[in-house]
């Protein structure tokens, strides 16, 4: 069944997003408690009313899943009708439903993983290093705000799992009467969604930044670079209108959809380099290439993702040829190969464009490093998601086409969709790794002390793409 991958996306996705947010904060060099002698605990930071509300929602979700596990399954019936006694006709038949215990196993596992993951993220929030430049009280308030957002998110996911169980319970036996689509758990899910939407977190206030010319010395080209990062996030959804305008062009092949998304992101990076060259390029300035354009960790991630993709394509191709089933690996191979030359264009433009004249030392090298970082990060995410999509699509078909009887690869193809979901989720996480710190590696020295600006604590920390 495809129930496990479908449930893994919202559960693991919401937890991974909050973990990434905690890891992307600018951290101080001291451990929690070393600066003030105080250590934040989960129970001291937890917003109590919201925590109790979320606990009740989880309890109701567990009760709904337990009740669903007691329900029997129904066999599907062909549609037919008969007079209802009032001059009309009543329709019978339709799809059945699996036994409730089978669905409850998946939903219960998802709820259990959501509870454990929530506790782990709460512990991470309380134990992470303090944010650089924040006092202990403000940092504790920031942790409370993060916990508020986490609890609201997981409460919505938990109520959504209960709504799935309620929808299963609402399905009637097709042999006894017309279908009943009234789902009380679904109505509760909508109420929880609205409640969590309007349950605002505490406000974090701080020093007002200075206004005027002296306060904002940010180069215009840097504002352009940040804007390009925002457009990259929108470009990832280009396959959606493409699938609407040209039905069946990319939807029939998920590998093509992923490739179009990656190519659109890389095209935006290339466009950014052209804009930098046209609007801010200085032909009389020497070109400055960063000493370390790609962090070692990101470079290793790219190599690992490419290796995983090649291994997945090889294994799927070998098994599909052996069983004589429909081959899906050529689309993945050709789509992945087609993205490689597209990724070379922004790298070539970053290497050949004119330098940028600015007041900040090393600005030109930092801009080139940011471009290289974005290209390598996009490729790493693309390879991981492509491998995951291939395993999700090919795994169930290879498992069902395998001969009856125990085989060494039987368990591997049965677990392939779950592995593919993990790879795809990992690719999404890699795609939003911030470029913070890359610019500093490309500069020739630390920035002057007099250029430091106060932090506007009313805005969230930047996570520029």
Automatic annotation (TrEMBL):
Keywords: Membrane, Transmembrane, Transmembrane helix. The keyword Membrane applies. Residues 456-465 have a biased composition (Basic and acidic residues). Residues 439-465 are annotated as: Disordered. The chain crosses the membrane at residues 6-25, 45-67, 103-125, 150-169, 181-200, 221-244, 256-276, 297-319, 331-350, 375-395, 415-435. This is Uncharacterized protein. It comes from Pseudarthrobacter defluvii. The lineage of its organism: Bacteria, Bacillati, Actinomycetota, Actinomycetes, Micrococcales.
